[in-house]
Amino acid sequence: MEKIWTTDELNRLDALFTESTPDVALRWGLETFGQDLALATGFGPSGVVLMHLVSLLEPAMTVFYLDTDLLFDETYALRDRIEARLGLTFTRVAGPSLDEQAVAAGPALWRREPDRCCFLRKVQPLRHFLATRRAWISGLRRDQSATRADVQIVGWDAANGLVKINPLAAWTSNDVWRYIQAHNLPYNDLHDAGYPSLGCRPCTRPVSVGENERAGRWAGRVKTECGIHLQPQAA
What we know:
alpha/beta
């Protein structure tokens, strides 16, 4: 029988892991969910840290990425470098091809309806992939943006119906980069060119000094999230 996770239990675990290092939450996830646990990565700095930790704890863990077919060339290059360096095997998760989307919804949907484009290329494929899992791991941090300020280390993902683990939620950007430098880990070359957060090519720009690290995503729009980390709103 599938365990039912209560809010009180998840809050207790969240408080416990807040006082611990990220590997403690990862170990708990592995011991609790085994092969039903998967790590999602967009190959950002937080993801690099988590992939390194996973390579030390359980290199056979499922590590997946959402391939929109619009990622930067540098992102695909980093994927290959990490695979060679850490010995991980990546699972590609994707939605319709760009040609299929253009036929169904018109060309360059990201310009006209970015929310719909994100839903088709990221949110929907993620839901299908996680349908067979009991828990997943992401690199969300509270300091990334106002919409992520309350992220828990362990919580319930109501949108996908499973436990979500964010081991680095309490870390800062400085913590992440110190770890990367201490372990001499590869990272996306575009981070040195003013891109602290990378998504799809048409929807990402460099940020200016003093801007939030996610300010370059969907710049000029109210939109700040692709939707995979958004939870249903209470009625």
